[in-house]
């Protein structure tokens, strides 16, 4: 009987939950035929906890359901409902590069509701205690970051970015050439508070060093399959960005990183974190806000998404590395 129960539990687990095998892709859990699995368990008398057997799958579903509830509340401009879904430390980086806190965002509820209609190209990614929703709305690229704290999914951060046509060259190509990379390659105005943050920062700086002294294969090892870089000039996927890295490596000419003016990292569990930073273009121009999501996968930190928004109200800064 014990052997039968063990076998049944194994079958239930395999039927109910399928982890994505493709590495280094994001961890995904797919719920399959819940009624069948439940019936199977009842027939064989298997006692099990539904939530624990399918924890990852149900958490991903819960995060997606929370996002749908958020959109429904926005459609009704229900400030009370929306307010309950925003984390106390919530921030919204607008398409003008302004960073609004929770109270400011709630006062701008009509503006947010107007943007969040008719979303397209929506992609969901789940990272245990963190979940992201990205896509297009209001003629802009958006990113919503959900976090689970105290048993509840809440929106931790949002960013909107106006993007120029994709036909233009990527900023990493435009800014390629000679120049130093002290900041961000070697030093940044930020001191990590945890060992996890220290490791994430070290990886981030390593990628910047690799972009400066191009090594396409090494760069790709720190970039997730789902990666996208989104800024006001271009959008690039991991594959597209890797092609640029290969070309720069062949030419022996990389790109110095944009210096960092401010940075902070917020951890979620032991395998995901959100990095907020403010930069200015190494070749000169308006500063911008940047939000990155880092995930621990295959024993190393990998960048899942990087999205930027230029600060329209800021004066352009001078170049710190002049192209010859």
Task: Looking at this protein, list some descriptive labels.
324 residues, alpha+beta, Nuclear Transport Factor 2, Chain: A, 3 domains, six-stranded mixed beta sheet, 36% helix, globular, disordered N terminus
Short précis:
The protein has 324 residues and is an alpha+beta fold. The protein contains twelve helices and 14 strands.
Q: Rounded to an integer, what's the Rg over CA atoms?
A: 22 Å
Query: Which ranges are low-confidence, i.e. pLDDT below 50, for 5 or more consecutive residues?
Result: 1-53
Query: How many helices?
Result: 12
Main beta sheet strand tally, sense and closure: 6 strands, mixed
What is the string of SSEs from the N terminus onward? HEEHHHHEEHHEEEEHHHHEEHEEEE
Total domain units: 3
Broad structural category? alpha+beta
Give the DSSP E fraction (strand runs of 2 or more residues).
Answer: 25-35%
CATH class call of the largest domain:
Alpha Beta
Shape: globular
Alpha carbon gap, first and last residue: 78 Å
Architecture of the largest domain, CATH level 2? Roll
| Helix percent band | 25-40%
CATH topology category name of the largest domain: Nuclear Transport Factor 2, Chain: A
- What value does the average pLDDT take? 84
Going across the biggest sheet, name each strand in turn: 4-3-8-7-6-5
Number of strands: 14
């Amino acid at each position: 009987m014990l052997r039968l129960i063990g076998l049944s539990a194994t079958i239930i687990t395999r039927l109910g939950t399928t982890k994505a095998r493709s590495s280094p892709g994001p961890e995904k859990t797919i719920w399959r035929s819940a009624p069948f699995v439940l019936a199977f368990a009842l027939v064989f008398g298997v006692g099990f906890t539904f939530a624990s057997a399918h924890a990852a799958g149900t958490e991903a579903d819960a995060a997606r359901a929370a996002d749908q509830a958020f959109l429904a509340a926005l459609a009704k401009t229900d400030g009370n409902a929306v307010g309950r879904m925003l984390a106390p430390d919530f921030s919204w980086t607008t398409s003008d590069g302004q960073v609004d806190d929770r109270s400011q965002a709630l006062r701008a509820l009509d503006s947010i509701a107007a943007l969040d209609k008719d979303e397209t190209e929506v992609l969901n990614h789940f990272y245990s205690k963190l979940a992201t929703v990205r896509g297009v709305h209001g003629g802009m690229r958006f990113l919503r970051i959900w976090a689970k704290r105290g048993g509840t999914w809440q929106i931790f951060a949002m960013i909107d970015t106006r993007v120029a046509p994709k036909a233009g060259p990527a900023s990493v190509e435009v800014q390629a050439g000679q120049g130093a990379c002290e900041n961000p390659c070697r030093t940044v105005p930020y001191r990590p508070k945890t060992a996890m943050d220290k490791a994430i920062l070290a990886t981030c700086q390593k990628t910047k060093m690799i972009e400066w002294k191009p090594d396409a294969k090494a760069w790709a090892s720190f970039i997730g399959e789902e990666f996208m870089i989104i800024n006001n000039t271009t959008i690039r996927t991991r594959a597209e960005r890797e092609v640029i890295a290969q070309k720069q490596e062949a030419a022996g000419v990389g790109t110095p990183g944009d210096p960092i003016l401010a940075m902070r990292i917020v951890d979620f569990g032991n395998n995901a974190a959100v990095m907020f930073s403010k930069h200015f273009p190494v070749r000169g121009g308006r500063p911008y806000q940047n939000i990155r999501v880092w995930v621990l996968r295959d024993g190393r930190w990998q960048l899942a998404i990087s999205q930027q928004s230029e600060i329209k109200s800021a004066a352009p800064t001078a170049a710190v590395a002049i192209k010859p």
